[in-house]
Amino acid sequence: MTAGLKTIISLSFVLAIGFLLVILSCALFHQYLPLLVVATYVLAPLPNWICGRCANPDDFVESSGNAVVDFGRFCTGFLVLMGVALPVLLAHSAIIRWDACVMSIIGGGLIYGTIIAFSMFFEEEQEF
Amino acid sequence: MSEERLWKFRKPEWMNSATARSAGVYGAGALFSLAFFTLLDAAVWSHSSRNGSNIHINFIDWLPLIFSSLGMLIINSIEKTRLSADSFSYSGSGVAWKARVVLFLGFASLAGGMAGGVTVLVLKYVVPQAPWPTVYMGIANVVSNGLVMLSSVVLWISQNMEDEYSYNLAL
Q: Quick one: a GO cellular component term (chain A) (predicted)?
């Protein structure tokens, strides 16, 4: 119980640091486009989750169920890389500065890591 | 199954695991994202202050990527098991042929996208002898089409992996 509480507290700290980095990368340079990274990473696990609910991956007779799961994974992979590619794109076109780009990538990575760790945590709880 | 093997080298064992399969699908999505954002980066860059030339990216530059993505969509929408169906098998007459024709269209579209990328690079950037930072836009076009091709290869391989995996489980 205490271990779970510690996990929740440390994860929320990491999430707060991630948001801090992303918001700082926007507010320091008065260019609020890096906030899109947060939206991307929040949306990233969503296709995987929806398609996982839609299909039963253990059903080997009906192979179309696997295709839906694969489509969800494809979309998740797309969105995860989008979170890294978007700041680099903005920095390369001189819309934001390179340090803002690095800050938003690190912050986005922390946010996404928190989301992944949280979902793994809850999955483990559901098994019992 | 092992008697029907065509190649001398067998597939390594780790390729049949579920983890490798899902990693392949994630990787294919990431590669496709990289392709899309390479071209989007060139498009945004061409309209930013960094671009000092008169050459800009318009719809023509996007056309090869559209064709490549269409080809990738077609190739990976085909049910792979229908391809190996012989004409005398239970799958009915002509299903394998239909699958092969549609697959051919998909591959043609993919290769056409790649060729279109090279064409845009040559006709729009190399022939007018554009200087280096401008040529980047054409190179990004070719790179993004190549990445779409790589992505569809990875997706194809990981989907074939899935068949082997489910076959092993079905036994």
A: late endosome
